[in-house]
């Protein structure tokens, strides 16, 4: 962007030129000289700011789904929030995580390639302790997982992928499937070291235990759907009209919905003393004549006027009149 000088800066520049403090030829040479910016080919920029914003929105929803899921499963306070979305080489991600951690390697058809959900040991062991009946406290020393612990963790984190599927539904319908659970990052090579990845970091709090959850998405995996991560796609998808089949299914579900219907005989007011002295055979005078129609309400809305009766030895009410919108006031006392 070109810098715009203020009037004071222009006056100071002209004064310096007129006094000889600055040379006009030097200024021309400075303008014509090439400006070089440093570019690191190992940190290739593959995700635009627009892509990063879209990934942030998607995984903020993912964080909310995870919070709900873990709160229900662990029956304790859980809070998960997105703290950062960045792009970096895969090798840098591997070197940044602990040597002993929980790595959930998964695929998400129809996308080709593998992704990783890395859970910090403090968080993973707190979840495991809570699932096994403990207070949700991480051990002071992290050790290798037993077969039983591995099985429990696989079940916990395989179900988190359902939340990821729900979060990505506005972009693409993916089918995440857990492939393996590793604890050593050196044994996990899903892409080449210099491949650019999107790293989504979540701050996680379970009771008094805190830690990070990192989602690693290689650029090569989501490259085919990168155009869908643009703002234009979000606006177009929001204006998408329902197909006839969806409308028909929606109508069927609405038609099956049950509504409460109440036929009011009338109302009256009595004192507490009168209420306490009520007995069998006492009569309460209502606020309407016997020949006046009954109010029939759907929920709390007046919709019909009817008359009482019986059908096959059961109390019934017959609809005599349909109350149109705006005509409710005619029947209010």
From TrEMBL:
Membrane topology designation: Peripheral membrane protein
Keyword Nucleus: no
Top-level taxon in the UniProt lineage: Bacteria
A GO biological process held by the record: positive chemotaxis
Keyword Membrane tagged: yes
GO molecular function: cytoskeletal motor activity
Main location: other
Pfam families tied to this protein: FliM (PF02154), FliMN_C (PF01052)
Localization of this protein: Bacterial flagellum basal body; Cell membrane
One Gene Ontology cellular component annotation held by this UniProt entry: bacterial-type flagellum basal body
Keywords in alphabetical order: Bacterial flagellum, Cell membrane, Cell projection, Chemotaxis, Cilium, Flagellar rotation, Flagellum, Membrane
PANTHER family: FLAGELLAR MOTOR SWITCH PROTEIN FLIM (PTHR30034), YOP PROTEINS TRANSLOCATION PROTEIN Q (PTHR30034:SF6)
Recorded family membership: Belongs to the FliM family.
Protein name in the entry: Flagellar motor switch protein FliM
Source organism: Paenibacillus nanensis
């Amino acid at each position: 962007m070109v810098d715009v000088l203020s009037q004071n800066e222009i006056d100071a520049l002209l004064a310096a030129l007129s006094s000889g403090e600055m040379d006009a030829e030097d200024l021309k040479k400075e303008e014509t000289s090439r400006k070089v910016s440093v570019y690191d080919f190992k940190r290739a920029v593959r995700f635009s700011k627009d892509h990063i914003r879209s990934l942030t929105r998607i995984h903020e929803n993912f964080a909310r789904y995870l919070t709900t899921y873990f709160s229900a499963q662990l029956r304790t306070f859980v809070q998960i929030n997105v703290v950062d979305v960045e792009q970096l080489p895969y090798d840098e991600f591997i070197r940044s995580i602990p040597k002993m951690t929980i790595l959930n390697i998964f695929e998400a058809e129809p996308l080709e390639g593998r992704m990783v959900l890395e859970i910090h040991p403090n968080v993973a062991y707190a979840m495991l302790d809570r699932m096994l009946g403990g207070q949700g406290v991480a051990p002071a020393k992290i050790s290798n997982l037993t077969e039983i612990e591995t099985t429990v963790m696989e079940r916990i984190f395989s179900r988190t992928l359902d939340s990821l599927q729900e979060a990505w539904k506005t972009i693409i319908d993916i089918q995440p499937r857990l492939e393996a659970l590793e604890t050593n990052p050196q044994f996990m090579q899903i892409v080449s070291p210099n491949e650019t990845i999107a790293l989504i970091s979540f701050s996680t709090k379970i009771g008094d235990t805190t830690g990070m959850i990192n989602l690693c998405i290689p650029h090569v995996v989501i490259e085919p759907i990168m155009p869908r991560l643009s703002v234009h796609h979000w606006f177009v998808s929001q204006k998408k009209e329902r197909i006839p089949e969806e409308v028909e299914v929606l109508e069927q579900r609405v038609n099956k919905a049950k509504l409460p219907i109440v036929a009011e005989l009338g109302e009256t007011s009595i004192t507490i003393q009168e209420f306490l002295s009520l007995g069998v055979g006492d009569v309460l005078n209502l606020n309407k004549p016997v020949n006046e129609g009954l109010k029939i309400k759907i929920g709390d809305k007046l919709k019909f006027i009817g008359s009482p009766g019986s059908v096959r030895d059961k109390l019934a009410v017959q609809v005599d009149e349909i109350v149109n919108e705006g005509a409710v006031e005619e029947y209010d006392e």
